[in-house]
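Ticket #4471: structure export looks truncated?
Reporter: QA, pipeline team
Priority: medium

Steps to reproduce: submit the single chain below to the structure queue and open the exported record.
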Amino acid sequence: MRDKLQKIARHPATRKALSDMKPKKTLWSALGIILFFIAPEIIAYFYATDIVHFAQNGLAMHPTRIESYNYDLLIYLFEDGVSWFNLSFGIALLVWLFF
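Actual output as written to the record:
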């Protein structure tokens, strides 16, 4: 099994597919990774409790259905704090982008 996996990894078609999947080294790709994976986790690290309290206070005012859905979503996203998986995935994407 191990030999078969190494054979697949060394195959030229596999190498070409991996190089085609790799994002281009541009400002937009780095900025996208930072904005969508790393920045929300940094914000959650510092402000998660404040965001959850804000959403809970908003729910206490009996908002409309759409507003209550948004407040529930904020609570769901930030009540556990930082998602270490997303943060490590974003860092791994940055490493893959530049190396």
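Status: closed, not a bug. The export was complete when the record was re-opened. Leaving a note from the reviewer for reference: The chain has one domain: 24-98.
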